Amino acid sequence: MTLRLYNTLTRAVGPFEPGTPGRVALYACGPTVYNFAHIGNFRTFLFEDLLRRWLEASGFDVFFVMNLTDVDDKTIKGAGAAGQPLATYVEQYIRAFHEDRAYLRIRDASIYPRATEFIAPMVALVESLLAKGIAYRGEDGSVYFAIERFPAYGRLSRLDTRELRTGASERVSADEYAKEDARDFVLWKAARAEDEAVGAAWDAPFGRGRPGWHLECSAMALDLIGRKWGIDVLDIHAGGVDLIFPHHEDEIAQSCAHTGREAFARVWMHGEFLTMGGTKMSKRFGNFLTARDLKEEQVDAGTVRLLMFNTHYRQPLDWSDESLGHAREGSRRLGELRDRLRERAGASEDPAFAPLAETFRADFGAALDDDLNSPRALAALFVFARDANRLLDEGRVPGAASLGVIDLADRVLDVLPTGSARVAELTGAPGPAGADGGLGVVLSEVPPVDPAETDRWALAWANRRRAAKAGQDYAAADRIRDLVRAAGYEIRDGRESSEVIRR
After folding, report:
1. CA-to-CA distance for 343 and 352, rounded, in angstroms?
2. Most buried by CB count within 10 Å: which residue of 73, 176, 201, 432?
């Protein structure tokens, strides 16, 4: 089956055909680094991670660019309030983004350009639009894009611009504005005292200032794909639905006016919102949850990814403790299957496993080729898990084909628990809290040198931790958890039992 994707521009699902067969220029709008990214942001980044992984699994050479917006109204305001230079202020949030991304197992993009590193291409793009008469300098010294001089404006968002008025009162100088404000937008903002104070102003032939938010993405994308492959049209541009207007609409206008092309991207893909209690997750609404919140709560990345991918990227997803619990259980079951397959695998596979693997590959591929239908892909994986567990229970021996199913699922969805194996599950009454943890092991705080002994060491400490919790010595329980974690193990507590996982 040919890969088919929903294109926001056409409002239809159609075959994906890149400009050059076999390779894909993919651009995604990354975070504005003025604060910690929340889980709603990461839903979009996870959908883009899935897109990139499936393109590569399908044989495409992918050049994936994700920008970092390190200069705009928000970052300048934040730097000013903190009394720091812009570069210093944003660095902490850039570092946090990459830490959170690594926690959620989002693969590295090919490049993460920072807007402040591409001022020269931005100045050149503005000069091009001024020369073409599509941009003009306003009385305030800023440079604006005249949307009435670009007849195609509004195609992406299906905006009706026929009744727009013209004139100075119809300009928008803010980086972000209300959806009804379809007016001339700013390309280059004249320098203000607050910009100068944090080092966010640059010299340009049309006046000292700094780029507008929309300009930044166009300049970075065109510069990078031009240098990489000598092209000026993206194959796919992705982002959240909130970026369709004005951000992506403005990107199209300034990019196409500059290049003379009819398109800036062949396919536009947008992920839906993540909500909490039915309300869009947003820093503005104060109802946001960050990746580091989840990490501190010891929520495994596989759980988060499974929860996200259990809803199609174009459908709203409501975050809840209940859905998180279901995802945790689903990820655990898949991890348990992975461990069983690895432990039982033989050189020669029982023929009974072959049709399961073939059916999975066919259903999994068909699902993701159908506009990244991750819920269907997950369903195929759980059907395989059910049937494979039945064969394992019968004593059948898995082999390369069955292990290949898990490898493919890991490579594309990556929803299995972190770690390679479950060491043990501790059930029933906790063992003695003595020096040996109830397992005849010396409970040194330093793991054994012999790797063969470390599992027993971790189990002994976990058993002692259960005894500490039973005695309500929670300080000791927390100290033991941290000790075991530092040695490469996780203790996961359930209502009636605990698991010890080797990471």
Report:
1. 18
2. 201
Segment-wise mean pLDDT, segments of 10 residues, the chain, 503 residues: 94 98 97 94 97 96 97 97 98 95 93 97 98 96 95 90 49 73 89 98 98 97 98 98 96 98 98 84 68 92 97 95 94 94 90 96 98 98 97 94 93 86 62 61 77 80 85 82 83 71 71
- CA–CA gap between residue 295 and residue 103 (Å, rounded): 8
Burial of 16 (0-12, 13-18, 19+ CB in 10 A): buried
pTM: 0.82
Q: Give the Cα separation of 238 and 67 in Å (integer).
A: 12
Partners of 69 in beta bridges: 32
Q: How far apart are CA 328 and CA 306, in angstroms?
A: 8
pLDDT of 428 reads: 62
**Are 129 and 187 contacting, i.e. CB atoms less than 8 angstroms apart?**
yes
Residues 215 and 195: beta-carbon distance below 8 Å:
no
Q: Which amino acid is at 95?
A: R
| Closest by CA position to 44, among listed 272, 243, 242 | 272
pLDDT at 107 (0 to 100): 92
Query: How many angstroms separate the CA atoms of 168 and 183, rounded?
Result: 10
| Whole-number pLDDT of residue 169 | 39
What φ, ψ does residue 475 adopt, rounded to 5°? -65, -45
Cis before 205 (ω within 30) = no
How much is the pLDDT for 281?
65
Task: Spell out the alpha helix ranges (H) of 58-171.
Answer: 73-82, 86-103, 119-131
pLDDT at residue 165, rounded to an integer = 44
- Beta-carbon count within 10 A of 138 CB: 14
Question: How far from chain centre, in Å, is Cα 301?
Answer: 12
Q: Which of 11, 12, 29, 1 is nearest to 236 (CA)?
A: 29
Tell which residue, 143, 125, 124, 243, has the closest CA to residue 184: 143
Q: Which two tokens stand for residue 140?
A: 């305030």
Concatenating the DSSP letter of every residue in 326-362 gives HHHHHHHHHHHHHHHHHHH--SS--TTHHHHHHHHHH
Residues 6 or more apart from 404 whose CB is under 8 A from it?
Answer: 357
In the block, residue with structure tokens 């960050």? 290
Among candidates 51, 74, 307, which has minimal Cα distance to 176?
A: 74
Q: How far apart are alpha carbons 79 and 82 in whole angstroms?
A: 5
Strands 4-7 and 12-15: antiparallel
Distance between start and end Cα atoms, the chain: 37
Collapsed DSSP state (helix, strand, coil) of residue 230: coil
CB 385 within 8 A of CB 409: no
